[in-house]
Amino acid sequence: MDKIITCFNKCPDASVRLICFPWAGGGSIHYARWAKALNSSIEVYSVKLPGREGRTKEPFFQNMQEIIDEVIGVILPQLKEKPFALFGHSFGAMTCFAFAEHLKKAFNLEPIHMFLSGASAPYSETRLQAPKRSDLSDQEFLIWVTSIGGTPPEILSNAELAKLFLPALKADIGVIDNYRCSRPSTPFLSCPVSCFDGKEDAPHDLQAWKSMTSGDFTVQMLPGSHFYLKEAANEKYILDHITKHLETAEMDYL
């Protein structure tokens, strides 16, 4: 499991696990801080996809089902032993949805909370009408990546570093461009869903996420653009929100 899931701070006595999915082109390392910042009742798992970090020699996944099959293939026993929650930003939010939908349909398992950030629901018109970024030329793609921020300028301005970084990002964007799912006719989850987004990011249809759950649904807009969650005050807000809601959920679960 260690090849695919990173646990930066093992907490065997934790009462809940938070499974974090990377954003497009991202790795698991961002969530190392979260593992240290959250209290020991929450154990953080972070998903590592092929083509990055310790998996650089592995080919990128071509579609969403490959991601879901691999992650579920290693993490299913842990999901059955104690409550879990999901977090994902942008591409990670889409992956969270696909993961939760498959878990419910195939194993009748569901998280105790979903935290989704920086993305329209995958079945929303806003998302379905969005331009396909993976079709852009390398130069056009680089311009777009620069425009959304979040990537250190020293990477984008260095041809060699950009050549290492951009293929993973473009592969993940390709997965999203080709991912299709139906709007749930009835909610398939009963857990709460919390959505976050940057006020200065391109508009996302966050309300559409409500179709997936019969549980509580909230939206919180925070200052910043697409990678607003990297800013310290916003990250603290999100972690405080996660802590409060998971501690409450633990009490309800017990």
TrEMBL record:
InterPro entries recorded: AB_hydrolase_fold, TEII, TesA-like, Thioesterase
Enzyme Commission number: 3.1.2.14
Catalytic activity: (9Z)-octadecenoyl-[ACP] + H2O = (9Z)-octadecenoate + holo-[ACP] + H(+)
Keyword Zinc: no
Biological processes annotated in GO: medium-chain fatty acid biosynthetic process
Enzyme class (EC, first level): hydrolase
A Gene Ontology molecular function term of the record: fatty acyl-[ACP] hydrolase activity
Residues in Thioesterase TesA-like domain copies: 19-246
Signal peptide: none
Keyword flag Glycoprotein: no
Domain of life according to the entry: Eukaryota
Pfam families, per the entry: Thioesterase
Keywords of the record: Fatty acid biosynthesis, Fatty acid metabolism, Hydrolase, Lipid biosynthesis, Lipid metabolism
Family label: Belongs to the thioesterase family.
Record protein name field: S-acyl fatty acid synthase thioesterase, medium chain
